[in-house]
Amino acid sequence: MEVAVTALARPGLEPLVSGISAVVARGLDPEHTAYAAAGVLRERLPGPGLLTPEERAGRPDTYASHLLHAEEGFSVVGVVWRPGQVTVIHDHVSWCAFGILSGVEHETLYRDMGDHLRELGRTDNRPGEVSGFAPPGDIHKVVNTSAEVGVSVHVYGADLRRLGGSVRRAYDLPVR
């Protein structure tokens, strides 16, 4: 058995990890696991001190992901977005729950229609808000639309030490 990689000394991480571990141990399907993990994240959303000041500064060229904990079954990642930083349209390898600590993550959701993507909707995720989703309904693009650095906590149902990242596919299909 491989030992989990974590820095549990980070403020607020240990209660989150123990709660997510209990959810994963229940063996629910991906959709129900995502919703249950979102419930734990909602109850135990850490503060900005989860990341160091250097981590919270972000990167000038792209959003930054910081792997905070990984074990068989799930990973916890801190994501830092400077104003205007954006992802490509993408989906994920597993279920995900996320909570916003600062900034505004403007999310656009899409459906794959085969030869194009159809926009399904948009939402602004604000500080304190938590959500969860599972494939196949997870094609999206995210941008920090606020004037401040955005920080969010993401929990993915995969060991990102082994995978290297949470993105399954980036989409370059036209949007209609």
From TrEMBL:
There is a cross-link at residues 96-156 (3'-(S-cysteinyl)-tyrosine (Cys-Tyr)). CDD domains: cupin_CDO (cd10548). One of its GO terms (molecular function) is oxidoreductase activity, acting on single donors with incorporation of molecular oxygen, incorporation of two atoms of oxygen. Fe cation binds at residues 90, 92, 140. Keywords: Dioxygenase, Iron, Metal-binding, Oxidoreductase, Thioether bond. SUPFAM superfamilies: RmlC-like cupins (SSF51182). It holds the Pfam family CDO_I. PANTHER family: CYSTEINE DIOXYGENASE, CYSTEINE DIOXYGENASE TYPE 1. Belongs to the cysteine dioxygenase family. This is Cysteine dioxygenase type I.
